[in-house]
Amino acid sequence: MEHLLDQFLNYCTVEKGLSHNTLESYSRDLIKYLNFLTTKGIKDITKTTDVTIISFVSLLKKEGLSTRTIARTLTSLKMFYKFLSEDQHITHNPTLHIETPRRESKLPHVLSMEEVDALLEKPERDTPRGLRDKALLELLYATGLRVSEIVSLSLNDINLEAGYLIAYGKGSKERVVPVGEVAQNLLKGYLREVRPQLLKHTQSHYLFFTRGGKPMTRQGFWKLIKKYSRAAGIKKNISPHTLRHSFASHLLERGADLRSVQLMLGHADISSTQIYTHVTTERLKKIHTQYHPRS
Question: Which one, 86, 132, 258, 267, has the greatest CB density within 10 A?
Answer without folding.
Answer: 132
